[in-house]
Write a structure and sequence with these properties.
Oligomer: single chain
Bound molecules: ligand CA2
Radius of gyration: 14 Å
Number of helices: 6
Largest sheet: 5 strands, parallel
Strand order of the largest sheet: 2-1-3-4-5
């Protein structure tokens, strides 16, 4: 099983600012944690971060035929990106949306996700744990097919 983890804008800053909202771990720390977990589950993963919407769209398109599932934290693009939503729908790869913070308890504009309706489900508010829960969710979903 091959899973692609995608990370949107500013997540490269994790662990350096706003630890109250997003925790103290860097994205590299989370990647290492998820790599350890995926090894135990015999899952191959790739981690990718971009601040550029089109690069995330390209990665989703390129995942077709290569990855069985996608776990995505689209970050701010969650609330704005029709392009990412359309790309997820176009490739027909089962996708789980994840967030570190609980977007439903924050500002009104964060409560709306344009990307979640293209996904099989959304996990939000468990910090770095959302990445592990995303891994388990996509694995269970793919095994149930
Ligand atoms: O809670 C999440 O995972 C978010 O996707 C994080 C995004 C935010 O726009 C979404 O509404 C919810 C923000 C990621 C920015 O991360 C930073 C990390 C450190 C310092 C500044 C920003």
């Amino acid at each position: 099983m091959k899973i692609l983890f995608l990370n949107g804008p500013n997540l490269n800053l994790l662990g350096t600012r706003e630890p109250d909202k997003y925790g103290v771990q860097t994205l590299k720390d989370i990647e290492n944690y998820i790599k350890d977990e995926s090894r135990k589950l015999n899952i191959e993963i790739q981690f990718y971060q971009s601040n550029i919407e089109g690069e995330l769209v390209n990665k989703i398109q390129e995942a077709k035929g290569v990855y069985d599932g996608i776990v995505i934290n689209p970050a701010a693009y969650t609330h704005t990106s029709v392009a990412i939503r359309d790309a997820i729908l176009a490739v027909c790869i089962p996708t789980v949306e994840i967030h570190l913070s609980n977007i439903h308890t924050r500002e009104d504009f964060r409560k709306i996700s344009l990307t979640a309706p293209a996904c099989i489900g959304q996990i939000t508010g468990f910090g770095a744990g959302s990445y592990k829960l995303g891994l388990i969710a996509i694995k269970d979903y793919l095994e149930s097919l």
